[in-house]
Predict the 3D structure of the following.
Amino acid sequence: MARLLLGVSGGVAAYKALETARLAVKRGHAVRVIQTPASTRFVGAASFQALTGAPVLSDEFERDPDRGRYPGEPPAERTPISHLALAERAEVYLIAPASANTIAKLAHGQADNLLTAAALAVTCPLIVAPAMNDRMYAHPATQANLELLRRRGTVVLPPGEGELASHGEHGPGRLPEPERLVASCEALLSRGAGWAGTRVLVTAGGTREPIDAVRYIGNRSSGRMGFALAAEAASRGADVTVVAAAVTVPAPPGVAVVEVQTAAELQRACDRIFEQSDVLLMAAAVADFRPAQPGLGKVKKGDPPLAPGPLELVLTEDVIAGLAARRRPGQVLVAFAAEHGGDAIAEGVCKLERKDVDAVVVNDVSRPEIGFDAADNEVVILSRDGAQRSVSLAGKERVARAVLDEVQRLRALERTDELQRGGERDGAGRERSRAGAGA
Ligand code: CTP
């Protein structure tokens, strides 16, 4: 049972919002409804009121007679500002149907009615279900607005294709069926609880590639970021295994640790554990090259020149790309890209595609205050659905929280995609969701 806020904007499909509210109540959710003034011309507040057992709000200046209370809850002690109370306490906010006009307002942060104001005030997942005429849906303005929303992490449900409200018109623009709408809300609701029993594989630290018995090629990664991710996942109830490469900081409690040194050892450990994992967080700095023939003992000063010899380098395997190639449906893979200056975001976008992962966490290690061996980090999380989230300079613990929040969102999105396609799940599905709804 969850607190579900349903926003209804103007359109013929508003009648399906009635059934959505009924179904959600039937499934045990506490539903409150906000209508735009235009939507009241299609369906009346009295119907929603009867179905949800709670008052319907439409005007931001109107007082909520229920003081922000959801059905089934005790009466509130004070009278709060109506839209903030309802929005603040919602666990999921579904806007269905979302008209082209409402979508434009949402994309640009306009708050000229209670529905759009609430969208700015919620902290819970926001789901937007567009429904309109097919030409309005296909218009570049609508598509650009939807893209903006997606980039900010809003879940945009692709509309169905078929007969539209205007007589004889056919195409994309139909509101998904109420069962789908409620199921999408439930998929997102499991975000918080979804970690119990989730198996998370984290790689941390930096690999060391031996040149001889005493020397190696390594990097400055300490393992702090990987361990912060592991600690955060464990605190959410996940079963966490860390493959730790030459880390220089202690591991957090409550996680299993597999120690490795080289890229090849890290690859073998990941190969073994990945199959049973649901989430992979690849924070380790894995060497791209290793000495072709490491010296057996200690290479002496007087020995023949090092190259060709122990310093002749060969490429290592791209571990995460290899794992992505044999991922099973539902697994979420996150890569970390430490870029040194240049266009870090563009590089990150390339890596997202090249490695076929769900998200890439990009940071610019040319800045001394962030990145390798520093306590703080500043990152941009690029995701497969086009979302870009910036985490400004913060401790690695906060960055870890943001990364795991994004993984939660991606897992929910994955489930929503599945529901949209009626359970079918394949690589082509990932392509579709990358291209965006209805595209
Ligand atoms: N990675 C990996 N195997 C490698 C190298 C890197 O799995 N042999 C992973 C890292 O753990 C990280 C992601 O790939 O999650 C990006 O690493 P990065 O070094 O930025 O990418 P590269 O593909 O090596 O590209 P570049 O040429 O920029 O180094």
Notes: The two ends are 34 Å apart (CA to CA). The longest strand covers residues 332-339. Residues 423-439 have pLDDT under 50 and may be disordered.
